[in-house]
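Lab notes, practical 5.
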Amino acid sequence: MAEEIRDPSTAPAADSQSLDDLDPRRWHVPIVCKDCDKPFAAPYRNFHAGVVFHCPACQGSWVPNTTIARGVRRVFESFFAERRRAREAFARGESKLTRDQFERAELDQLEAFRKRLERMAAELRPAGKLVRPKGIAAMFT
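Output from the prediction step:
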C-alpha cells in the first residue's frame, strides 16, 4: 500500500498540515526483523494481531501477537490523544505558551515518542522468535 504522492501546488494550508500527523493513515510502527535485525516500518492501520509483515531486506515474516498489538495501540493512541487535546486547548487559548514555544514543545514530544518507538521495536518479541541458546545450554540442543 504505497503512500499517495501529493502535488505541492494542491497542498493544504499550514494549519491543516499540522493536523496531518493526527491522521492514523499516516502513522507507521517501527519493527526490527527477527531474522536479519534490520529495521522496517509497518502501517499502523494494518498492525493487528496475526497480520503477517515481511521484511523488505530478507523477506522474513514478522507476526505480532495480541500482547504486542495491544501495547502498540495503547502507546500510539495515548500519545496522539494527548497531542490532540493539547492542540485543541492551544486553539481555544487555554495555553500560556506562545506559538513558537508550543511548536517547539510539540517537536520535543514527537522526538521523545519516536525514541520510545525505537526502543519498543528493539524489545518486541513476536511469536516464533528464535532465541538461540548460548553457553553450555547450546551443547544440549
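Observations recorded by the TA: Residues 25-125 form one domain. The radius of gyration is 19 Å.
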